[in-house]
Amino acid sequence: MSNQSNSLRTVSIVGTGIYLPEKVMTNRDLEKIVDTSDEWIYTRTGMHERRIARDDEYTSDLAANAGRAALADAGVSPEEVDLLIVATLSPDAFFPSTACYVQDKIAAKNAYCYDLGAACSGSLFALETAKNQIATGAVETALVIGAEKMSTFLNWKDRNTCVLFGDGAGAFVLKATGAERGIMDGVFGSDGSLAHLLSTPGGGTRHPMTHDMLDEGLQYLQMEGREVYKHAVTGMKKSVLDVLEKHNLSSDDIACFIAHQANARIIEAIGKRLKVEDRMFMNVEKYANTSAAALPIAVHEAVQAGKVKKGDLMLLVAFGGGFTWGANIVEW
Questions:
Q1: 103 vs 125, 179, 190, 278, CA distance in Å?
Q2: Whole-angstrom Cα distance, residue 216 to residue 220?
């Protein structure tokens, strides 16, 4: 079945690309700087290592490199890009948007650009936003990038959070195509009443950049892990079921399930509850949680690994601070 009405164009992902910083930080490396162990980290998260960007490597640099790779994969020039969205919670600056920095770095001079903030769900939200712009004919070509330099916002003395995250970027190129289904309409939600469970509280108007704020450590990511775990498993499972129902599909119709790469235990729990463990793609052991970058990195690697082939359906699902969540189905 088609997910679009006759008045809308079908939109597809026509190229993917990723960029990962060179520096690898293993669990053994973390043992040297914080009270933890390789066993403690792996048994709780499934993570072995993560990438850490250089001090002179910014979120826009990660994003630009992933964007260039995706454009090359799609055979699209930077000048053809009409819309450039960067999903991130670790921007270069409050303003201008990181997307504007990326535009300059990749010479996408004809694109209009903005950032999208939905934490770990950001790339999924951005994918839906760009898809709708193309479907209506407002733009022809979009570049969607999820990019994070999480290492900047971590308290490297807090073993409960610093071990969980890494840096990286992934990108999608979107165009209208003749595909039957393309990027299907997703399901999305948010619950701001739970914002306090996962946030970086300092630096904005609520807790401005002052010496007192810095002394309190409010500039660092803060998380109530058990509560986040519970809501993430429940929220992503429901999102998967809702989007399958929306399109009158069953889990048997999906070749590959790609969940936000937050924690192997979360991904395994979702796979078990949905009875799709054999089709859940996972790379969190290599990169840890790269927030908005995680889904596009995972999609790229799943495709490269042959987990999906042309015409297959993949289901993408995410959950992030806000809380934000959602799922959609993509015809490859």
A1: 20, 29, 29, 39
A2: 9
Separation of first and last alpha carbons in the chain: 15
- pTM for this prediction: 0.96
pLDDT of residue 7 exceeding 90? no
Measured CA to CA, the distance from residue 262 to residue 163 in angstroms comes to 12
User: What order of strands is seen across the sheet that includes strand 11-19?
Assistant: 11-19, 167-176, 141-149, 83-87, 112-116
Element holding 238 (H helix, E strand): helix 225-246
**Pair of tokens at residue 311:** 């015409």
Catalytic site residues? Answer: 120, 260, 289
pLDDT at 106 over 60: yes
Interatomic CA distance for residues 24 and 108, integer angstroms: 31
Ramachandran assignment for 84, one of left (phi > 0), alpha (psi -120 to 50 degrees), beta (any other): beta
Residue 323 to residue 243: CA distance in whole angstroms: 18
Identity of the residue numbered 73: D
| Rounded Cα–Cα distance for residues 49 and 29 (Å) | 9
- Write the Ramachandran bin of 119: left for phi over 0, alpha for psi from -120 to 50, otherwise beta: left
Crossing angle between the packed helical segments 294-304 and 122-135, to the nearest 10 degrees: 80
Residues 148 and 136: their CA atoms lie apart, in Å, by 30
